[in-house]
Amino acid sequence: MKFSLVGVLIAAVVATATPANSGCKQIQYQFPSGSGNPERAKAVVDAYRRVYGEYEKYCFGKDGLQPISKTCDNGSLWGFGGTIIDGLDTAIAMNLTDIVAKGLENTAKVDFSNVTILVELFDANIRIIAGLLGAYDLLKSGMFFNDYPKDQIDALLAGAKTLATNLKPCFDTPSGVPASFTNFTNKQPSHKAQNTAVVGTLILEYFHLSDLTGDDSFAALARKAESYLINPKPAPKYPGLVGGQVNTDTGDFLDYNFGWQSGLDSFFEYLIKTHIYDPGQDRNSEYLNFWTLAVDSSMKHDTVSPYGFPNLKFLSNTDTLGNLKYSIDDYTCFAGGNFLLGGAYLGRQDMKDAGIALTDSCHQAYNTTLTGLGPLTLAWYNENNTAYNPAYNNDTALREYATKNGYFIPPEGFSAVYFSFPETIESIWYAWRITGDTRWREYNWEIFKALNTTRSEDIPYWEILNVNKPSGGGAWNSLSTYFFAETLKYLYLSFTDPEVLSLDRFQFNTECHPFLIQQGTCAVSYPRDYDSPRVYKQKLNLERVEL
Length: 547
Ligand SMILES: *[C@@H]1O[C@H](CO)[C@@H](O)[C@H](O)[C@H]1NC(C)=O
Ligand SMILES: *[C@@H]1O[C@H](CO)[C@@H](O)[C@H](O)[C@H]1NC(C)=O
Ligand SMILES: *[C@@H]1O[C@H](CO)[C@@H](O)[C@H](O)[C@H]1NC(C)=O
Ligand SMILES: *[C@@H]1O[C@H](CO)[C@@H](O)[C@H](O)[C@H]1NC(C)=O
Ligand SMILES: *[C@@H]1O[C@H](CO)[C@@H](O)[C@H](O)[C@H]1NC(C)=O
Ligand SMILES: *[C@@H]1O[C@H](CO)[C@@H](O)[C@H](O)[C@H]1NC(C)=O
Ligand SMILES: *[C@@H]1O[C@H](CO)[C@@H](O)[C@H](O)[C@H]1NC(C)=O
Ligand SMILES: *[C@@H]1O[C@H](CO)[C@@H](O)[C@H](O)[C@H]1NC(C)=O
Prior knowledge:
single chain; about 550 residues; mainly alpha; two-stranded antiparallel ribbon; 18 helices; about 5% strand; globular; disordered N terminus; disordered C terminus; binds 2-acetamido-2-deoxy-beta-D-glucopyranose; disulfide bond; alpha-1,2-Mannosidase
């Protein structure tokens, strides 16, 4: 489709909301004005200020706070000031101007190339690079207060570019499938065993970085790595449901372990999000098509109900041969939101229905525990009333719990912990923004209150060891940086005006860092002064990508 300059100017003037019926895609529910709940939004902002205040007081500039001992971690995110960077765009969206000013000043001083320990591609990308780009986008968008020193805002993009440049040796493998770590001094890749999520959680950030810097080398590296995942060898057990481990020498898959759990999750997540971010960038449909294939297969072969609970639906974990294990980890709970996003974009009601059922089922796990928070791992008895692990078949306590709630928490390892997990809150937020049904944000309010209750006055937040014990069965001396990036952001966005970070204007990386959609949805089908330089130029040249 081509359009004239006159058309562009008119569209830019009139398109304060959504141009109707212009062939563009509408994702978010069209809320009437006044759909926010300012009081509840403010309660979340107060929680951010209270908990972040502890980090500022005891550990400012370091990576993280250990909230009970009030000691600091400065190394888990390479001493870059991980909590500041991961939380920055949330603070910008909340207009916490003093926190943002201090955070920008500190971040501008960080040297993203001076690290002696090994740097891990995955977390450096999703938390640091994406945190820097998310903050940069919000400050450049003109949608938020941005009267901060310009050189400090520009330092965000420069820092992301420096870090991504130093990470390039990770891709120095025979196939181009990245290794997990690199050493900034000798510039060698390290730790070659690789999972699918690490390889497949690059395209969104790396495309955006290339768009913003004009340097296409980042996009090229991510596209090459991704090419092995969407052309899987050997063929997976079901179309689109690729294995969990990739050989970095050949790009071949090493197992048949499929599903939407940790190790695979954000590979699927990014296929649809990167397509929506810019349909032209994925060569018009490669990623979208693979995502559709995977979701269709997942609905058919991986979506199961516990015995006696036909309304609950979970996307099961599998073993290395691809047999269902009738359990999920909490990470899987992002999938409901991802199905809803893609279903809304494609107009696929079956995907939206599946997304609602998956989200309701993860919510069930929160709603039925003593604390109101969900566990890391849950399992259930299958259609034949048996568990994957036979040890649980005759366990009376587990049987009783499952008969009541549909699932049980396996009595092993870290199954019962709640470590600030955002995924269920995330899917509930997508359900709210896509359906407009207010029951969803009531759920997130209940979860927010649950988060807020097991704390003491002098320790405003900690992570808990057992979601089914009074006061969480003990406190874990940790405050994950994603509590600020994701948990509190999804909660805030559940109550603030739905136009704030609208799904028609932003795509969120797997750590909830918002990137401005480049083209394709209704809200962005006209040039804006905050498009990336590449797309802005393209639009001015009136060469729109065919959709
Ligand atoms: C954290 O560690 C980094 C890297 O070692 C160092 O440059 C930085 O000064 C440390 N931050 C603080 C606040 O001590
Ligand atoms: C954000 O805070 C600044 C400084 O306190 C204030 O001037 C501005 O009006 C606020 N913006 C919004 C959108 O609330
Ligand atoms: C690199 O960091 C170390 C320790 O954090 C510091 O002593 C050194 O001066 C830094 N080097 C450069 C070139 O900035
Ligand atoms: C990184 O490489 C340098 C130079 O070869 C070496 O001295 C250092 O021990 C390496 N660091 C790590 C953490 O492997
Ligand atoms: C479960 O949901 C109901 C209805 O939304 C609510 O009243 C109740 O407090 C919730 N229970 C827990 C433990 O979250
Ligand atoms: C349940 O039992 C039936 C009959 O034995 C069998 O055909 C089916 O495969 C079983 N289902 C599962 C999930 O094990
Ligand atoms: C479990 O209970 C059934 C009867 O309910 C019994 O036949 C079976 O032997 C028991 N299995 C184990 C491992 O105890
Ligand atoms: C959250 O906890 C704080 C501190 O105990 C309290 O002041 C606040 O009212 C609580 N908020 C909600 C919504 O319960």
